[in-house]
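User: quick one, fold this
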Amino acid sequence: MDSNATGGQGRGQVRPWRWVTIAGRRWRVAGDPADSYFEWAASHARGMGEIHAVAAAILPPDGTGVALDIGANIGMAALVLGALAPAGRVVAVEPSPHIAARLRETLSLNRMAERVAVEQCAVSAAPGEAEFHVDSGHSAGSKLVDAGTMDRAVLASPPVRVPVTTMDALMAAHALPRVHLVKVDVEGFEGDVLDGARGTIARHRPAFILEFNAWTLLCNRNANPRTVLEDWLARFPVVHAFRGVAAPERVRPADALAFLHDHLVKRKCADDLVLSFDDAWVARWRPPGAARRA
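Assistant:
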């Protein structure tokens, strides 16, 4: 394992880290050896190149962008956003106390701790508390527990209680004057994040990068993927799907069923969407690896 000591808490205590490359830049990410997401961090980092390409097209080129990373995990997207907004503001949100600690270590390893603020909480439709399942074997599978739909028998460990906020409240808590981009990866609860961001969306009209995954929507939220997709297409006038080195694909309401068919049959329930209020960013988009580097 390509790892080294990060100088963890307590004398002699060390945490493993790995080198990863995102858009041509090398970073160190912290994690736990038992976590398969961390084990395959280099592979996941290659996918971050697409997020980098989209973020580079959306965030102001002068580095003053404001961005949120909701569902930050061990921090790879937070590094991308922090690097693209060196004179701006970035807030990274991770509900799991354990994973949030690794997120902070990742930021510290890369001298990003002063640039990226960390909130250890979940983001949903209303503030309060909720149960959260921490998947120690695959941290990317950690998720809120919907008491009405989640089969507790399938959980590998008992859920923990975590604080919950809304995106509107998060904006106020950090006194953010605006927000340009929000990345959301919350295992099927993306619609709840949007519900708690109505004020922010109305005032600032940010772009969102959201994971659309029919399996997590059905399994974790008992939500009909068609209903969710149609809802997102109604909320935002412009929707695009990531297509690797090819230009982002426009998804219109009339395309919903065809998109959903290919999502289920060809793409194995894996799509990242950009929800926005105009398509000006598409003209600035460059393929992963060619987008501006911080």
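User: anything notable?
Assistant: The CA atoms of residues 227 and 270 lie 17 Å apart.
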